[in-house]
Design goal:
alpha+beta; N-terminal domain of TfIIb; GMP Synthetase, Chain A, domain 3; 4 helices; 19% strand
Length: 165
């Protein structure tokens, strides 16, 4: 028998009463440029704890060899995992079993028509066998309001950029 991992001790049932952002977890990932001095094309991404340590490569569609992962894949993995966690939480709160839920994130990288730069477009597809649209819709909406990646997509994310000395 496979042993199940314990559920995280996170909940939206406990109200947060504060004026400012209160970090619960912080991580740091550093990307270096590699052979071409271009993080996307030949970089390496490594987390401070060493758990994440991967080579980054441009996908073939952008002129690369496609031999490694790319930022869009990492973003899709993070977004779908985060939304899955939020939906699982609200499903349990509604007395439903989230075991069969899967979340697929498709991230498209393209030109921004407003400034000629780049833009991401995200499509999430949730599969939840046995749960009808009427039951799922309010739970999907609640998960969308809780998921930090969804909040980032809708509202933006406070960002600071600092040149280290």
């Amino acid at each position: 028998m496979t042993e199940r991992n314990p559920l995280p001790d996170l909940s939206v049932e406990h109200d947060f009463d504060g004026e400012a952002f209160a970090p619960i977890y912080t991580t740091t990932v550093t990307v270096s440029g590699g052979a071409s001095s271009h993080g996307r094309a030949s970089g390496r991404a490594r987390s401070a704890d060493g758990v994440l340590d991967i080579e980054l490569r441009m996908p073939a569609e952008l002129g690369g060899d496609g031999s490694g992962t790319n930022p869009e894949q990492l973003f899709a993995a993070g977004f779908s995992a985060c939304f899955h966690g939020a939906l699982s939480l609200v499903a349990r709160q509604a007395g439903l079993d989230p075991t069969a839920i899967s979340v697929e994130a498709t991230v498209a990288f393209g030109r921004d028509p407003d400034d000629g730069g780049y833009l991401l477009h995200v499509d999430l597809v949730v599969r939840w066998p046995g749960v009808d649209l009427e039951t799922a819709t309010p739970l999907l909406e609640r998960a969308d309001s809780l998921c930090p990646y969804a909040k980032m997509a809708w509202r933006g994310t406070p960002t600071t950029i600092t040149l280290a000395s």
